[in-house]
Design brief:
41% of the residues lie in helices and 17% in strands. It is an alpha/beta fold. The strands form two sheets. A seven-stranded mixed sheet has the order 7-6-8-9-10-11-12, with helices on both faces. The chain has a five-stranded parallel sheet with strand order 2-1-3-4-5, with helices on both faces. Helix 1 packs across helix 10 and helix 2 packs across helix 3. 43% of the residues are buried.
Length: 284
């Protein structure tokens, strides 16, 4: 297990599914857990450590962790529990990486449409992006905005120390909302991001539901515990002889819309009834 953060609830779902499939730790299963916390520069060394241990499979969480594992080995199977794999053929990836991607086609565009529904007079949208993270999601968002009258203000940050400056820049340029590109570093800092969005009176949208639980306005994305359960089934198949290159990389088929109505009230926003009706869950 290689994680760019430490999402224990998500990994618990992974373990539960392994047990359902008949794997019991310290009986017929040994787990070597490596968490980078917020020190993403350690991922390369942690991946190499797992390779030296000659593990049967490396399971990763987050694109950065998957990339670190790929650089460390081209032979040990790698199963992504979340992340983005920009391969030409998701159906037959053909290398040693497979699993579940947390990005389904058009998801950034659908988030863009949602924030427009909630903020109907939106003219400028701030985009918070971790430089070195998912450029694919940024490009997809830019493509979605191209045919609209909404201008994007893309602000790349390297560390959490740059958050305050990024939000101040959005306010200065009169952004009407903030779109947070999902990233392990942002996940770890979700409380601060939610607090800054509220402080600057910016309605925000992100992928993981934990962002809304921390005080963010909207989340729209897959159930991450479900993705980790699916990753466990990949491990089972590989242990039983399947080649990772022959196993299709799955995209999420079910997405959840979660709305924090307390945050909406604090921002002076009225969530349109059609959006409320589509919500999977309401956070009071």
């Amino acid at each position: 297990m290689l994680d760019a953060g430490e999402r224990l609830e998500w990994w618990a779902a992974f373990g539960q599914e392994l047990r359902r499939l008949g794997y019991v730790e310290d009986r017929n299963l040994v787990l070597h857990k490596r968490f980078a916390g917020r020190h993403f520069e350690q991922l390369s060394a942690l991946a190499q450590e797992l390779v030296r241990l000659k593990v049967a499979v490396i399971v990763t969480s987050g694109t950065v962790a998957a990339q670190a594992a790929k650089h460390a080995t081209s032979t040990i199977p790698i199963v992504m529990a979340t992340g983005i794999e920009e391969t030409a053929n998701l159906a037959r990836p053909g290398a040693n990486v497979t699993g579940v991607t947390s990005l389904s086609a058009g998801l950034s565009g659908k988030r863009f449409e949602l924030i427009q529904e909630v903020v109907p007079r939106l003219v400028r949208l701030g985009v918070l992006w971790h430089r070195g993270g998912s450029e694919f999601a940024v490009r997809e968002l830019e493509a979605a905005a191209r045919s609209s009258k909404v201008a994007l203000q893309v602000l790349g940050v390297k560390t959490s120390a740059e958050f305050a400056g990024a939000f101040a820049a959005m306010t200065k340029q009169r952004a009407g909302a903030v779109f947070v590109i999902a990233d392990p570093m942002f996940f770890s800092e979700r409380q601060r991001i939610a607090d800054l969005a509220l402080k600057h009176r910016l309605p925000g949208i992100q992928g993981p539901v934990e962002y809304v639980e921390a005080g963010g306005l909207l989340s729209y994305g897959p159930s991450y515990p479900d993705l980790f359960r699916r990753a466990a089934t990949y491990v089972d198949k590989i242990v039983k002889g399947a080649r990772p290159g022959d196993l299709p990389i799955e995209q999420p088929t079910k997405v959840e819309l979660v709305i924090n109505v307390k945050t909406a009230k604090a921002l002076g926003l009225t969530i349109p009834p059609p959006v409320l009706l589509r919500a999977t869950r309401i956070v009071e």
